[in-house]
Protein backbone atom coordinates (compact mmCIF):
# COMPACT_ATOMS: atom_id res chain seq x y z
CA UNK A 1 0.00 0.00 0.00
CA UNK A 2 0.99 3.60 -0.42
CA UNK A 3 2.21 5.47 2.58
CA UNK A 4 -0.80 7.70 2.85
CA UNK A 5 -2.09 6.70 6.26
CA UNK A 6 -5.64 5.52 6.51
CA UNK A 7 -7.21 8.53 4.84
CA UNK A 8 -9.10 7.91 1.63
CA UNK A 9 -7.69 9.47 -1.48
CA UNK A 10 -9.53 12.33 -3.18
CA UNK A 11 -8.57 13.52 -6.66
CA UNK A 12 -10.06 16.13 -8.92
CA UNK A 13 -9.13 18.20 -11.91
CA UNK A 14 -9.89 21.84 -12.54
CA UNK A 15 -9.97 23.19 -16.08
CA UNK A 16 -7.84 26.32 -16.43
CA UNK A 17 -10.44 28.26 -18.32
CA UNK A 18 -10.01 31.24 -16.03
CA UNK A 19 -12.25 33.24 -13.72
CA UNK A 20 -14.19 31.39 -11.08
CA UNK A 21 -17.76 32.50 -10.48
CA UNK A 22 -19.93 32.15 -7.42
CA UNK A 23 -21.43 28.91 -8.75
CA UNK A 24 -17.96 27.34 -8.98
CA UNK A 25 -17.13 28.65 -5.55
CA UNK A 26 -20.13 27.17 -3.72
CA UNK A 27 -20.50 24.15 -6.00
CA UNK A 28 -16.91 22.95 -6.15
CA UNK A 29 -14.14 24.89 -4.46
CA UNK A 30 -15.85 25.13 -1.08
CA UNK A 31 -16.19 21.34 -1.11
CA UNK A 32 -12.52 20.87 -1.88
CA UNK A 33 -11.72 23.11 1.04
CA UNK A 34 -13.84 21.00 3.35
CA UNK A 35 -12.21 17.81 2.13
CA UNK A 36 -8.65 18.91 2.71
CA UNK A 37 -8.63 18.11 6.43
CA UNK A 38 -10.36 14.77 6.18
CA UNK A 39 -8.83 13.19 3.11
CA UNK A 40 -5.58 12.81 1.29
CA UNK A 41 -6.25 15.26 -1.54
CA UNK A 42 -4.84 15.76 -5.01
CA UNK A 43 -6.16 18.81 -6.87
CA UNK A 44 -4.85 19.27 -10.36
CA UNK A 45 -5.04 22.03 -12.93
CA UNK A 46 -5.95 20.17 -16.11
CA UNK A 47 -3.73 22.14 -18.47
CA UNK A 48 -3.19 19.20 -20.85
CA UNK A 49 -6.89 18.57 -21.17
CA UNK A 50 -7.35 22.18 -22.18
CA UNK A 51 -5.20 21.59 -25.27
CA UNK A 52 -7.97 19.43 -26.74
CA UNK A 53 -10.13 22.51 -27.13
CA UNK A 54 -7.64 25.40 -26.81
CA UNK A 55 -4.54 24.55 -28.86
CA UNK A 56 -3.42 28.17 -28.74
CA UNK A 57 -1.31 28.42 -25.58
CA UNK A 58 -0.73 32.18 -25.54
CA UNK A 59 -2.90 32.61 -22.48
CA UNK A 60 -2.28 29.26 -20.85
CA UNK A 61 0.24 30.46 -18.28
CA UNK A 62 -1.98 33.35 -17.19
CA UNK A 63 -4.98 31.05 -16.93
CA UNK A 64 -3.13 28.38 -14.97
CA UNK A 65 -1.86 30.96 -12.48
CA UNK A 66 -5.26 32.53 -12.08
CA UNK A 67 -6.94 29.21 -11.39
CA UNK A 68 -4.30 28.36 -8.79
CA UNK A 69 -4.60 31.78 -7.16
CA UNK A 70 -8.39 31.67 -7.10
CA UNK A 71 -8.46 28.25 -5.50
CA UNK A 72 -5.90 29.23 -2.88
CA UNK A 73 -7.68 32.51 -2.16
CA UNK A 74 -10.89 30.51 -1.69
CA UNK A 75 -9.27 28.48 1.05
CA UNK A 76 -7.42 25.59 -0.58
CA UNK A 77 -4.18 25.15 1.34
CA UNK A 78 -1.17 24.04 -0.74
CA UNK A 79 0.44 22.74 2.46
CA UNK A 80 -2.47 20.41 3.14
CA UNK A 81 -3.21 19.17 -0.37
CA UNK A 82 -1.19 18.39 -3.45
CA UNK A 83 -2.10 21.30 -5.71
CA UNK A 84 -0.33 20.77 -9.01
CA UNK A 85 -0.35 21.12 -12.78
CA UNK A 86 -1.12 18.08 -14.90
CA UNK A 87 1.76 18.78 -17.27
CA UNK A 88 4.25 18.66 -14.39
CA UNK A 89 3.59 14.98 -13.78
CA UNK A 90 5.09 13.26 -16.80
CA UNK A 91 4.05 9.83 -15.58
CA UNK A 92 0.51 10.79 -16.60
CA UNK A 93 1.45 10.58 -20.27
CA UNK A 94 2.77 7.09 -19.75
CA UNK A 95 -0.30 5.79 -17.93
CA UNK A 96 -2.50 7.43 -20.57
CA UNK A 97 -0.64 5.45 -23.22
CA UNK A 98 -1.19 2.13 -21.46
CA UNK A 99 -4.83 2.86 -20.75
CA UNK A 100 -5.37 3.81 -24.39
CA UNK A 101 -4.72 0.16 -25.29
CA UNK A 102 -7.62 -0.79 -23.03
CA UNK A 103 -10.05 1.82 -24.36
CA UNK A 104 -12.25 0.98 -27.33
CA UNK A 105 -12.90 3.30 -30.22
CA UNK A 106 -16.62 2.59 -30.00
CA UNK A 107 -17.04 3.58 -26.37
CA UNK A 108 -14.94 6.71 -26.85
CA UNK A 109 -16.96 7.81 -29.86
CA UNK A 110 -20.23 7.53 -28.02
CA UNK A 111 -19.12 9.62 -25.03
CA UNK A 112 -21.48 12.57 -24.63
CA UNK A 113 -18.75 15.16 -24.07
CA UNK A 114 -16.91 13.98 -27.20
CA UNK A 115 -20.01 14.29 -29.35
CA UNK A 116 -20.76 17.72 -27.91
CA UNK A 117 -17.27 19.03 -28.50
CA UNK A 118 -17.07 17.70 -32.04
CA UNK A 119 -20.28 19.54 -32.73
CA UNK A 120 -18.71 22.72 -31.33
CA UNK A 121 -15.40 22.37 -33.19
CA UNK A 122 -16.05 20.21 -36.26
CA UNK A 123 -12.75 21.29 -37.82
CA UNK A 124 -10.73 20.07 -34.88
CA UNK A 125 -12.09 16.64 -33.96
CA UNK A 126 -8.65 15.57 -32.74
CA UNK A 127 -7.68 12.26 -31.14
CA UNK A 128 -7.00 14.05 -27.86
CA UNK A 129 -10.66 14.96 -27.75
CA UNK A 130 -11.59 11.35 -28.43
CA UNK A 131 -9.35 10.04 -25.66
CA UNK A 132 -10.10 12.84 -23.21
CA UNK A 133 -11.73 10.37 -20.79
CA UNK A 134 -8.64 8.15 -20.94
CA UNK A 135 -6.41 11.05 -19.88
CA UNK A 136 -8.84 11.83 -17.10
CA UNK A 137 -8.75 8.19 -15.98
CA UNK A 138 -4.94 8.39 -15.94
CA UNK A 139 -5.13 11.47 -13.68
CA UNK A 140 -7.37 9.67 -11.21
CA UNK A 141 -5.89 6.17 -11.30
CA UNK A 142 -2.37 7.60 -11.01
CA UNK A 143 -3.06 8.29 -7.33
CA UNK A 144 -5.29 5.27 -6.91
CA UNK A 145 -7.98 7.68 -5.77
CA UNK A 146 -11.42 6.40 -4.85
CA UNK A 147 -13.23 9.71 -4.35
CA UNK A 148 -13.61 12.22 -7.15
CA UNK A 149 -15.49 15.44 -6.38
CA UNK A 150 -17.08 16.41 -9.70
CA UNK A 151 -20.37 17.61 -11.07
CA UNK A 152 -23.03 15.56 -12.82
CA UNK A 153 -21.53 16.25 -16.23
CA UNK A 154 -18.51 14.11 -15.31
CA UNK A 155 -20.40 10.94 -14.27
CA UNK A 156 -19.87 9.27 -17.62
CA UNK A 157 -16.13 9.92 -17.51
CA UNK A 158 -15.96 8.35 -14.07
CA UNK A 159 -17.84 5.30 -15.24
CA UNK A 160 -15.27 4.99 -18.02
CA UNK A 161 -12.44 5.36 -15.48
CA UNK A 162 -13.92 2.45 -13.54
CA UNK A 163 -14.13 0.39 -16.70
CA UNK A 164 -10.51 1.08 -17.64
CA UNK A 165 -9.39 0.30 -14.07
CA UNK A 166 -11.28 -2.99 -14.08
CA UNK A 167 -9.96 -3.99 -17.48
CA UNK A 168 -6.44 -3.27 -16.34
CA UNK A 169 -6.89 -5.17 -13.09
CA UNK A 170 -8.46 -8.10 -14.89
CA UNK A 171 -5.70 -8.37 -17.43
CA UNK A 172 -2.61 -7.49 -15.41
CA UNK A 173 -3.49 -7.77 -11.70
CA UNK A 174 -5.21 -5.72 -9.05
CA UNK A 175 -3.63 -2.29 -8.98
CA UNK A 176 -6.45 0.20 -9.21
CA UNK A 177 -9.42 0.75 -6.88
CA UNK A 178 -12.66 1.96 -8.49
CA UNK A 179 -13.12 5.74 -8.38
CA UNK A 180 -16.55 7.21 -7.67
CA UNK A 181 -18.03 10.67 -7.93
CA UNK A 182 -18.13 12.25 -4.52
CA UNK A 183 -19.47 15.36 -2.86
CA UNK A 184 -21.20 16.43 0.30
CA UNK A 185 -24.51 15.45 -1.29
CA UNK A 186 -27.48 17.12 0.32
CA UNK A 187 -25.34 19.96 1.63
CA UNK A 188 -24.61 21.14 -1.90
CA UNK A 189 -26.08 24.58 -2.35
CA UNK A 190 -27.70 25.85 -5.46
CA UNK A 191 -26.40 29.18 -6.69
CA UNK A 192 -29.07 30.73 -8.89
CA UNK A 193 -28.31 33.09 -11.72
CA UNK A 194 -29.13 36.78 -11.38
CA UNK A 195 -31.44 36.80 -14.39
CA UNK A 196 -33.94 34.51 -12.76
CA UNK A 197 -33.26 31.55 -15.06
CA UNK A 198 -31.24 28.52 -14.02
CA UNK A 199 -27.99 28.21 -12.14
CA UNK A 200 -25.19 30.73 -12.05
CA UNK A 201 -22.86 29.61 -14.81
CA UNK A 202 -20.59 30.91 -17.49
CA UNK A 203 -23.57 32.21 -19.37
CA UNK A 204 -23.87 34.49 -22.35
CA UNK A 205 -25.52 36.99 -20.08
CA UNK A 206 -22.49 38.35 -18.28
CA UNK A 207 -24.68 40.39 -15.96
CA UNK A 208 -26.29 37.26 -14.54
CA UNK A 209 -23.09 35.82 -13.13
CA UNK A 210 -20.92 37.11 -10.31
CA UNK A 211 -17.21 36.39 -10.67
CA UNK A 212 -14.69 36.33 -7.82
CA UNK A 213 -12.77 38.85 -9.92
CA UNK A 214 -15.60 41.39 -10.21
CA UNK A 215 -14.90 44.85 -8.83
CA UNK A 216 -17.16 46.22 -6.11
CA UNK A 217 -18.89 48.51 -8.57
CA UNK A 218 -19.49 45.74 -11.05
CA UNK A 219 -20.96 43.53 -8.32
CA UNK A 220 -23.33 46.35 -7.34
CA UNK A 221 -24.28 46.98 -10.94
CA UNK A 222 -25.03 43.31 -11.60
CA UNK A 223 -27.10 42.86 -8.47
CA UNK A 224 -29.08 46.07 -9.06
CA UNK A 225 -29.93 44.89 -12.58
CA UNK A 226 -31.57 41.70 -11.31
CA UNK A 227 -35.20 41.38 -12.30
CA UNK A 228 -37.91 42.21 -9.75
CA UNK A 229 -41.52 43.35 -9.97
CA UNK A 230 -43.89 45.59 -8.05
CA UNK A 231 -44.08 43.13 -5.15
CA UNK A 232 -46.68 40.72 -3.78
CA UNK A 233 -50.22 41.95 -3.29
CA UNK A 234 -51.48 39.12 -1.10
CA UNK A 235 -49.97 38.21 2.25
CA UNK A 236 -47.83 35.08 2.44
CA UNK A 237 -47.93 34.44 -1.27
CA UNK A 238 -45.36 32.20 -2.91
CA UNK A 239 -42.39 33.81 -4.64
CA UNK A 240 -41.80 33.92 -8.37
CA UNK A 241 -38.49 32.27 -9.42
CA UNK A 242 -36.56 35.48 -9.93
CA UNK A 243 -37.46 36.72 -6.44
CA UNK A 244 -36.78 33.36 -4.83
CA UNK A 245 -33.35 33.47 -6.45
CA UNK A 246 -32.53 36.76 -4.75
CA UNK A 247 -33.44 35.25 -1.41
CA UNK A 248 -31.30 32.21 -2.15
CA UNK A 249 -28.36 34.44 -2.96
CA UNK A 250 -28.92 36.30 0.30
CA UNK A 251 -28.86 32.98 2.10
CA UNK A 252 -25.30 32.48 0.88
CA UNK A 253 -23.82 35.77 2.02
CA UNK A 254 -26.16 37.74 4.31
CA UNK A 255 -26.81 37.70 8.04
CA UNK A 256 -29.77 35.67 9.31
CA UNK A 257 -31.47 38.79 10.70
CA UNK A 258 -31.20 40.59 7.39
CA UNK A 259 -32.78 37.70 5.53
CA UNK A 260 -35.64 37.31 7.96
CA UNK A 261 -36.37 41.04 7.82
CA UNK A 262 -36.89 40.84 4.05
CA UNK A 263 -38.82 37.56 4.36
CA UNK A 264 -41.19 39.24 6.79
CA UNK A 265 -41.52 42.29 4.56
CA UNK A 266 -42.33 40.02 1.66
CA UNK A 267 -44.97 38.17 3.61
CA UNK A 268 -46.47 41.48 4.71
CA UNK A 269 -46.47 42.86 1.15
CA UNK A 270 -44.29 45.82 2.03
CA UNK A 271 -40.99 44.62 0.66
CA UNK A 272 -38.87 47.20 -1.15
CA UNK A 273 -36.85 45.35 -3.72
CA UNK A 274 -34.54 48.30 -4.28
CA UNK A 275 -33.49 48.14 -0.62
CA UNK A 276 -33.21 44.39 -0.75
CA UNK A 277 -30.93 44.49 -3.78
CA UNK A 278 -28.82 47.23 -2.22
CA UNK A 279 -28.37 45.08 0.86
CA UNK A 280 -27.60 41.98 -1.22
CA UNK A 281 -25.09 43.96 -3.27
CA UNK A 282 -23.26 45.17 -0.15
CA UNK A 283 -23.20 41.68 1.34
CA UNK A 284 -21.85 40.28 -1.94
CA UNK A 285 -19.16 42.94 -1.99
CA UNK A 286 -18.24 42.07 1.58
CA UNK A 287 -18.02 38.41 0.61
CA UNK A 288 -16.24 38.68 -2.74
CA UNK A 289 -13.84 41.58 -2.27
CA UNK A 290 -11.48 39.90 0.25
CA UNK A 291 -11.19 36.89 -2.06
CA UNK A 292 -10.57 39.12 -5.09
CA UNK A 293 -7.88 41.04 -3.23
CA UNK A 294 -6.22 37.84 -2.08
CA UNK A 295 -6.19 36.56 -5.67
CA UNK A 296 -4.50 39.76 -6.81
CA UNK A 297 -1.88 39.58 -4.10
CA UNK A 298 -1.11 35.92 -4.90
CA UNK A 299 -0.86 36.70 -8.62
CA UNK A 300 1.61 39.48 -7.95
CA UNK A 301 3.92 37.07 -6.13
CA UNK A 302 5.56 34.99 -8.85
CA UNK A 303 7.96 33.37 -6.41
CA UNK A 304 5.17 32.13 -4.20
CA UNK A 305 3.27 30.65 -7.15
CA UNK A 306 6.36 28.94 -8.49
CA UNK A 307 6.94 27.45 -5.07
CA UNK A 308 3.34 26.23 -4.85
CA UNK A 309 3.63 24.55 -8.25
CA UNK A 310 6.95 22.92 -7.43
CA UNK A 311 5.79 21.63 -4.07
CA UNK A 312 2.53 20.35 -5.53
CA UNK A 313 4.23 18.66 -8.45
CA UNK A 314 6.67 16.91 -6.16
CA UNK A 315 3.88 15.53 -3.97
CA UNK A 316 2.02 14.31 -7.03
CA UNK A 317 5.17 12.78 -8.51
CA UNK A 318 5.94 10.77 -5.38
CA UNK A 319 2.52 9.19 -5.64
CA UNK A 320 2.81 8.79 -9.43
CA UNK A 321 6.19 7.06 -9.26
CA UNK A 322 4.85 4.51 -6.78
CA UNK A 323 1.88 3.71 -8.95
CA UNK A 324 3.87 3.52 -12.19
CA UNK A 325 6.36 1.11 -10.67
CA UNK A 326 3.50 -1.23 -9.79
CA UNK A 327 1.91 -0.71 -13.20
CA UNK A 328 5.05 -1.53 -15.20
CA UNK A 329 5.74 -4.60 -13.12
CA UNK A 330 2.16 -5.83 -13.36
CA UNK A 331 2.26 -5.33 -17.13
CA UNK A 332 5.49 -7.24 -17.49
CA UNK A 333 7.38 -4.17 -18.70
CA UNK A 334 10.35 -5.21 -16.65
CA UNK A 335 12.95 -7.34 -18.32
CA UNK A 336 15.73 -7.67 -15.77
N1 LIG B 1 -12.84 16.72 -17.18
C1 LIG B 1 -12.90 17.54 -15.99
C2 LIG B 1 -13.81 18.74 -16.32
O1 LIG B 1 -14.14 18.97 -17.44
C3 LIG B 1 -11.56 18.02 -15.56
C4 LIG B 1 -10.67 16.90 -15.13
C5 LIG B 1 -9.50 16.52 -15.72
C6 LIG B 1 -10.88 16.04 -14.02
N2 LIG B 1 -8.95 15.48 -15.04
C7 LIG B 1 -9.75 15.16 -14.00
C8 LIG B 1 -11.88 15.92 -13.06
C9 LIG B 1 -9.64 14.16 -13.04
C10 LIG B 1 -11.75 14.93 -12.09
C11 LIG B 1 -10.65 14.06 -12.09
O2 LIG B 1 -14.19 19.46 -15.40
Structure described in brief:
The protein is mainly alpha-helical and 336 residues long. It is built from 14 helices and 5 strands.
Observed structural traits:
single chain, 336 residues, mainly alpha, Rossmann fold, Tyrosyl-Transfer RNA Synthetase, 2 domains, 3-stranded parallel beta sheet, two-stranded parallel ribbon, 14 helices, 5 strands, binds tryptophan
Account of the 3D structure:
The protein is mainly α. The chain has 2 domains: 4-189 and 302-331, 3-Layer(aba) Sandwich (Rossmann fold); 206-295, Orthogonal Bundle (Tyrosyl-Transfer RNA Synthetase). The chain has helices at 22-35, 47-50, 60-73, 91-100, 105-109, 112-120, 127-130, 132-142, 155-172, 216-225, 241-253, 256-267, 273-299, 302-331; strands at 9-14, 40-45, 82-85, 147-148, 180-181. A 3-stranded parallel β-sheet has the order 1-2-3, sandwiched between helices. α1 (22-35) links the parallel β1 (9-14) and β2. It starts with 8 loop residues before the first strand and ends in a 5-residue tail after the last helix. Tryptophan binds at residues 11-13, 15, 46, 49, 136, 139-140, 148, 150, 154.
